[in-house]
Amino acid sequence: xxxxxxxxxxxxxxxxxxxxxxxxxxxxxxxxxxxxxxxxxxxxxxxxxxxxxxxxxxxxxxxxxxxxxxxxxxxxxxxxxxxxxxxxxxxxxxxxxxxxxxxxxxxxxxxxxxxxxxxxxxxxxxxxxxxxxxxxxxxxxxxxxxxxxxxxxxxxxxxxxxxxxxxxxxxxxxxxxxxxxxxxxxxxxxxxxxxxxxxxxxxxxxxxxxxxxxxxxxxxxxxxxxxxxxxxxxxxxxxxxxxxxxxxxxx
Length: 251
What we know:
Layout: H1 2-16, H2 22-36, H3 43-46, H4 48-52, H5 54-58, H6 64-95, H7 97-131, H8 139-179, H9 185-205, H10 214-236, H11 243-249
Helix pairs in contact: 2-6, 2-10, 6-7, 7-8, 8-9, 8-10, 9-10
């Protein structure tokens, strides 16, 4: 009898425990992943040696460890980017399944291009560590190859981490604006920042200025502010109470 009473009490205590809100779990996970997409910012410093003078780097100047850490950080960014789209898909599809699928597809394409750029950089590290200095190696050819790989990195970076966020943020901004899951200022910043970044990407593509110029940095700032502030908001506040979030909160 005492055993049955103990079991009933345990079951009752378990039933009274608050269940984790599914919509809060989605917003928290998405927020963490969005913040993780900013871990590659140090590559501006980590890649400085190879992007500044790839020829000197492949022949021994600078640190190959810095390049490898930069590549790892970009892999994390790519995987986190896919994660944001996948985690938000159950919510986004309630607003527009087309936009939700488009966001997942855009993130996948972005990550594929990021991985191509990482392979380019790691290939330079391989030339430096395993080829340079060996018997019969033509140093001039190594320098030429390293410059070509840096050029591949620059173009894939333009298409991946600069152009694809335009599509991602327009799709996500549309979902957030229609759903009112976050304050309207977030999608508005996305709607302003995405066309500005697109115009800058076109200018870089046609050689008006370089990707690392101050103008390019300013053009990318609104998109960066949108994604970082959205990630922090989702971690701290989560989605606003709406019929959409209420529907997803049902156990």
